[in-house]
Amino acid sequence: MNVALWLVAAGALGACEVASRRFDHGWPTAAQLLRSARGHLAGRLVLIIAWLWLGWHVFAR
Amino acid sequence: MFVALAACGWFAAAMPPFGIESSAVTFSVAAAMLGAGAVLAHRYSPALDLPAGEPVRDVSLRLRGMVAWLLAVLVVLAVELWELFHSPRSLYPTLSSLANDVLGPGHRVVRAAAFMCWGACGLVVSSRSRRHA
């Protein structure tokens, strides 16, 4: 049952990406959101911290 | 850089978790990737950039899209927290426990490949995206 919760969560992310492909010139894709975040110092810091946390969590712990 | 990252990934994948060696390798590679990303930011590399897409013409749709993405991320966080604060882990799997089945100790090849991908992502996140005209 709880794997189903993860499928719902993955489906929500997938639905957003599919919607971004269907709506032209509006709904941002994940890549565009990441690009926007990388264009600002605060966004880049958040991404770097998240990336560091992911690496520490998966490979060091 | 690719060969060095692959070598680091191969050795890091064999290290036991919760150890000083695994932490040292992980953070050393992280520092190297961040440094390389910062250097490459001064020498713009299109390979590190993500597609800009078409110019936005519908601002309300973009706003709705961003809200939808935010809600989707909140759903993921909510599921993670729900699973985290319930037990046993076998019935309430978190992202970590799900990933451990694939990336845990004993899966050296997959773990090394994941380490390489993680390192490569560091180059992307640490470099500044260029705004297209």
Question: Would you give an account of this structure?
Answer:
The complex is a heterodimer of chains A (61) and B (133). With 61 residues, chain A is mainly α. Chain A is 82% helix and 0% strand. The radius of gyration of chain A is 15 Å and the shape is flat. The two termini of chain A are 28 Å apart. Chain B is mainly alpha-helical. Chain B has one domain (2-50, 60-126). Chain B is 68% helix and 0% strand. Chain B has five helices and no strands. Chain B is flat and about 45 Å long. The chains are: A mainly alpha (61), B mainly alpha (133). The interface between A and B is large, with 40 and 58 residues.
Task: Quickly give the structural class of chain A.
Answer: mainly alpha
How far is it from the N-terminal to the C-terminal residue of chain A, by CA? 28 Å
Query: With helices defined by DSSP (H or I, 4 residues minimum), what is the helix count of chain A?
Result: 3
> What's the rounded overall pLDDT mean of chain B?
79
Quick one: how many beta strands of chain A? 0
Strand content of chain A: under 5%
How is this fold's topology laid out?
The complex is a heterodimer of chains A (61) and B (133).
Chain A: H1 2-22, H2 30-38, H3 41-60
Chain B: H1 2-14, H2 20-42, H3 59-84, H4 95-103, H5 108-126
Helix pairs in contact in B: 1-5, 2-5
Please tag this protein with its features:
heterodimer, A: 61 residues, mainly alpha, flat, B: 133 residues
Sum this structure up briefly.
The complex is a heterodimer of chains A (about 60) and B (about 130). Chain A has three helices and no strands. With about 60 residues, chain A is mainly α.
